[in-house]
Amino acid sequence: MATAAKCACEATVTGLYACAGACNVGQMANKIAVELTKQGKGRMMCTAGIGARIPGIMKSTEGTDEIIAIDGCALTCARKSLELAGFTVNKHVVLTELGMQKNKDLDLQENEVSAVMARVGSALGN
């Protein structure tokens, strides 16, 4: 990650990069990134754009102060995409390691989202 000039206000940018895989844990990882963005815990950024090496997305990632990868399962696609592009992941969570069971059900239940959000918050120290 390149060292970028900081503004005088000392604002930091935390990039949130989520898996969005074709299963419940992938969709939950994406939902968690959306919720963390809404809570002001970081800014959701495009993981697929990292894999595709889109210049503008790569440049935006270079400007982050911290990179958080949120993966659904042990394949860790979000983290690996970032690392293969040359970025250092500062924090990484894997939802299956936090107790979520992987399956093909894409309908997320709000009570499950809340429970997983709490576990992710603890894992990230929020």
TrEMBL record:
Which branch of life, at top level? Archaea
Q: Write down the InterPro entries for this protein, in alphabetical order.
A: DGC
Q: Please name the Pfam families in this protein's record.
A: DGC
Q: What protein name does the entry list?
A: Zinc-binding protein
Q: Which organism is it from?
A: Methanolobus chelungpuianus
Lineage of the species this protein comes from: Archaea, Methanobacteriati, Methanobacteriota, Stenosarchaea group, Methanomicrobia
